[in-house]
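Section 4.2 – Deliverable D4.2 (structural model, holo form)

The reporting period included a commitment to supply a predicted holo structure for the target in complex with magnesium ion. Inputs used:
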Amino acid sequence: MALLELESITKTFVEDGATTPVLHEISFTIEPGEFVAIMGPSGSGKSTLMNIIGLLDVASSGSYLFDGKNVENLSDNEQANVRKTKIGFVFQSFNLLPRQITLDNITLPMVYNNTTKLQRAKRGHDLLEEVGLVDRGFYRPGQLSGGEKQRVAIARALANKPSLILADEPTGNLDTANGKKIMELILKLNKAGNTIIMVTHDHNLASQAHRVIELLDGRVVSDSATKTSTNQSKLSDKKPAKKPAKKPKKTKAKKKAKK
Ligand SMILES: Nc1ncnc2c1ncn2[C@@H]1O[C@H](COP(=O)(O)OP(=O)(O)O)[C@@H](O)[C@H]1O
Ligand SMILES: [Mg+2]
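Output (structure tokens):
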């Protein structure tokens, strides 16, 4: 069974009388174990799509099945439950709690998942090992490098053994060397069976994913899995870009949209 099934998903923001159509008729399916890169210029709707996939926001129309269940039929509580237990998030800006040590940042999602202190301590240690930070467990985010912070965020995303990891430009705030290391970690996690969707501007990183979905103006213009490609699309032939990709716009604070 597919892990995700999106069918004709659209999203239009309506705020203060202004209507902004952002996503148009997005349809694709993702199977367990896939590693999918989502590419597209700044403003093409990548984060909006990730927020819908991650149940941080709701689509305006279309259907979305997560793990075979129609998300629309789930109550707010059930959606929150899926989000907390089945989806791990990694953001460009790490989003760590500055006053908490690494171990507590990593195991935070477990606190809301009926676990004991002992279970969290044990899992926390395993996760530190998994991301190569055993000697940083008692550091606070301010004492860590960018690459290390992103490792902490990845460990936190893994804490509840989610079915899906969503990473929105995880290397966007890192230099090339650290970005490469984060990518190696993400590839390792995928090899271990994790399903991963990663937004990136970097063609070299995207080419390491098994599948690339490209967005332009809120539409899928190519999907390497189905080999659909419109003549608007030149990005998907897996060649590194000659020029570096444009710097992404500052992303908006993630918030659950009001229904
Ligand atoms: N809450 C919102 N209200 C109105 N417009 C929004 C909102 N969030 C995003 N947008 C608009 O949707 C478009 C796509 O944004 P986004 O999904 O963040 O793109 P990307 O992640 O590809 O850079 C942009 O034009 C942005 O201004
Ligand atoms: Mg974005």
